[in-house]
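Exercise 7.
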Amino acid sequence: MTTRGRAYYNEIDPYCAQWLRNLIDAGHIAPGDVDERSIVDVQPSDLSGYVQCHFFAGLGGWAYAARLAGWPDSRPVWTGSCPCPPFSSAARGRRAGFEDPRDLWPAWKKLIASNAPSIVFGEQVAHGSSWIDRTSADLEALDYEVGAAVLPAIGVGQDHTRPRVYFVGYTNRNREPSMHLNAEMAGLPGHRSDAGEMVQSNGVSNRMAVFSAFGNAVVPQVAAEFIGAFAECAA
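Solution. The predicted structure, written as tokens, is:
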């Protein structure tokens, strides 16, 4: 099967991987293929031909957010929310930061460096600044301009705060004038209506699995606001 024009989803958890396939079959996220290998086993050549790549894809939050924001399935983009336990104050077990084996940004950075996607969206906990400082420095070293904003779920009508740092890396390889992303994206709107389609499109058979999945999931409506703000200032 050809990969051209399709989306790539990388997700190691079997429950979430099946959820992604259900969403694809239902037409809620871009048609594509789900790879259940660890990101550390993914090679740059494995991604050849895919127009969009969603890493740590979980329940499809970033892919769904792209559609909410009006981002066409045919427009290239990479997304991902690296595992948060190394940096989260709420995580169980030790939080060793960059020394934690659950810190998978280096593996994702390796693929970004090799494949040079034009736009990369990501998200992480808003606890401390060490991870975003490192991520920004790494992306800038790869010739990306980086913008970031702290956005809470309550800003889109959710009943929980859940502040997260959202970031975007935008290639500046043609040496075009700087977009000054942080300044341009400072006026992010505060609300988007929620139809709840993604949550309602699948049955829940394993309560603990879904609790875990939702606990780690990006809030699509917040991510959509961030994508929309970037698209507006990049137009």
